[in-house]
Amino acid sequence: MKWRVVICGILTAVVAYTAVRIEVLNAQNGNRLPKQPVDGRILKWRCAARRSLIKVYEKQFALRRVEEFHAENPDAELPGEEAFIGLPLTVEEQAELNAALEELERDAEFYGVVASLGHLQYILAPATLIFAAMLFRRQRQTSARVAASLSMSIASIAIFLMFYRGYFTAVHGW
């Protein structure tokens, strides 16, 4: 009989860890979940590749340099942005790029947790709730019933968060 309490405890720990981890990452990433509809539908979660983001920022910096060159030399012929791509970044540009890359890494970690553990939560949280309810009904010991009650409470909260935050729809855009 003790093995049932241990299994219930392990399931509860995994479900609680997943819910807390997603909530913490959500708070760190500006409360992105639940995703807000755009034009009546929820868009798919997209994470940019590091290399692509760097190229976008290099192009943006090159365009800024073209504008600065034109402001300083209004009569001179404008060079193309290609002339400024590949030049060393200024301290400000490097700081801006580093901030964007850090945000990208946080977003990718958040996406990874929601796409893996968040999806697993759709199976584990209801299973934990059912298992804990069965344990509650079968056990006569007060400590086992208290543990089962705690497990049911945690699983219920995790199920609420899972549907409220929309882990599945956030990743798949449904």
How would you characterize this protein structure?
By secondary structure, the chain is an all-alpha fold. It has one domain (2-172). It is 74% helix and 0% strand. It has five helices and no strands. The protein has helices at 2-28, 50-72, 91-138, 142-165, 167-172. It is rod-shaped, with a radius of gyration of 25 Å. The two termini are 42 Å apart. 18% of the residues are buried.
What is the total domain count?
1
Query: What gap, in angstroms, lies between the N and C termini?
Result: 42 Å
Task: Determine the number of helices (DSSP H or I, runs of at least 4 residues).
Answer: 5
Task: Tell me the series of helices and strands, N- to C-terminal.
Answer: HHHHH
Low-confidence stretches: none
Tell me the strand percentage band.
Answer: under 5%
Q: What structural class results from the helix and strand content? A: mainly alpha
Secondary structure layout:
Layout: H1 2-28, H2 50-72, H3 91-138, H4 142-165, H5 167-172
Which descriptors apply to this entry?
single chain, mainly alpha, rod-shaped, 74% helix, 174 residues
In short:
This protein has helices spanning 2-28, 50-72, 91-138, 142-165, 167-172. The chain has 174 residues and is mostly helical. The model has no long low-confidence stretch (mean pLDDT 81).
